[in-house]
Design a protein that fits this description.
- The protein is α+β, with helices and mostly antiparallel strands.
- It has helices at residues 8-15, 28-35, 38-41, 82-86, 115-119, 146-149, and strands at residues 5-6, 51-52, 67-72, 78-81, 91-98, 104-113, 130-135, 141-145, 155-160, 163-164, 174-176, 189-195.
- The chain has 2 domains: 1-57, no CATH class; 61-201, Sulfite Oxidase, Chain A, domain 2.
- A 5-stranded mixed sheet has the order 4-3-12-7-8.
- The two termini are 32 Å apart.
């Protein structure tokens, strides 16, 4: 898989004017040709992964110094090292990654842990019904309901395709929720908060659906 980095200007170019310019499936390349400036088309790949950022660079976090703060509506707020997280029950899965712009990557191998096992360490309050994931990328965050976070194939991943999670894919830790489009799969997570209800994430504040179910949101079928 060939990773390419597309920063703020490139991503906004891909989306066109405002947030209405989503593109899907076989129409992707025609759309890109219309809206991406010529100097940017060279960095738009034609297959595999696309790496989007809302800033000008990709966070670079040392695994040794990495810390994950978990707090909000919990009895025991705690900060975890990467070794602490790797001590949680390890799970592995193979799933497909869907971007809201129409491309997919099949058979991605992830390894990490289920959110429930992390929450067992901090004991959420009974009134907590949502969980917020905050990225090291300034300004980027998103949230799920706890029911969504407990789906059987949702995990927090620190490995990908048999090796440590690569920096462009969110190292040291990222969210993987295969049933939702990629913008919900927060990368470079440094803080997790338990909340009374979900909050609007970065892209939802720019018009995207809160519930990003693949095939059922953002103009592709009924939102649910």
């Amino acid at each position: 898989m060939n990773d390419r980095l597309i920063g703020r200007a490139g991503f906004l170019g891909l989306l066109g004017v405002g947030t209405a310019g989503l593109f899907y499936g076989r129409n992707v390349q025609d759309f890109v040709g219309r809206v991406v400036p010529k100097q940017l088309q060279a960095i738009v790949p034609t297959d595999g992964w696309r790496i989007y950022t809302i800033g000008d660079s990709v966070p670079n976090i040392s695994p040794v110094s990495y810390r994950l703060a978990v707090g909000g509506m919990v009895d025991g707020p705690r900060t975890f090292t990467l070794d602490d997280l790797k001590a949680l029950k390890r799970v592995e899965q193979i799933s497909t990654f869907h971007c809201v712009t129409g491309w997919i990557v099949n058979n991605v191998h992830w390894a990490g842990f289920r959110i429930k096992d992390l929450l067992d360490e901090v004991k959420p309050h009974a009134g907590a019904t949502a969980i917020r994931f905050v990225s090291a990328e300034p300004g980027y965050d998103d949230s799920l309901t706890l029911d969504q976070a407990m789906l059987g194939d949702v995990l927090l991943a620190y490995e990908m395709d048999g090796g440590p999670l690569p920096r462009p894919h969110g190292a040291p830790l990222r969210l993987v929720i295969p049933d939702m489009y990629g913008y919900k799969n927060v990368k470079w997570i440094t803080r997790i908060e338990l909340l009374p209800k979900p909050t609007a994430g970065y892209w939802e504040q720019h018009g995207y659906d809160v519930n990003a179910w693949v095939g059922r949101s953002n103009g592709n079928g009924p939102s649910a």
